[in-house]
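Onboarding guide, step 5: your first structure request.
Type a short instruction followed by the sequence, for example:

Predict the 3D structure of this protein.
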Amino acid sequence: MRTPTEIVLVRHARSVPPTADGPDDFTRPLTTRGLRQAEELVTTLSEARPAAIWSSPYRRAIQTVQPTADALGLPVRTRTELREWDDGLAFTEVWESHYVRSWTDLSYARPGGESLEQLGIRAVAALRALARHHPGRVVLVGSHGTFICRALAGFGVPVEWATVRQMPMPAVYRLRFTDPHTRPEISELV
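The system replies with structure tokens like these:
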């Protein structure tokens, strides 16, 4: 029997809220509290003994896994496929009604954006690719709430808009693949 591959999937810690004046979604950092939360994750994430650390290229996701990478002497590598959902919205303070619409109709995409259905396909494919690339190893992955929810849904976990709204920052899930082509066993760590 082969050794399972584990993906430890981390939603970023508390980040600076988006504003009309920026920073943009790509460069938005963690708050002071979020930086403390990232430091507090080091013990839990290190105990998993990751062989590799990957992240969304978004600053807040990298900042969340960087302290663990530093503690383990591993680089944080980025993959575009691990990025957050491209909702197709310019900054708006009334974004929630747009998100509710997308969660009601998973195939709906705003011009220039991706649907939640497309995100789910991207998320599952990205995590399966990492599992194939690191067979029998543990891989730490820094990402985002909507990405994680759509990945979980893609692996058969019931997820809805309320799930995203209630997911803490940070949140940590373990996906245990006995085969990268099958559904993983999923557990919540934090």
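Each response can be followed by summary notes, for example: The mean pLDDT is 95.
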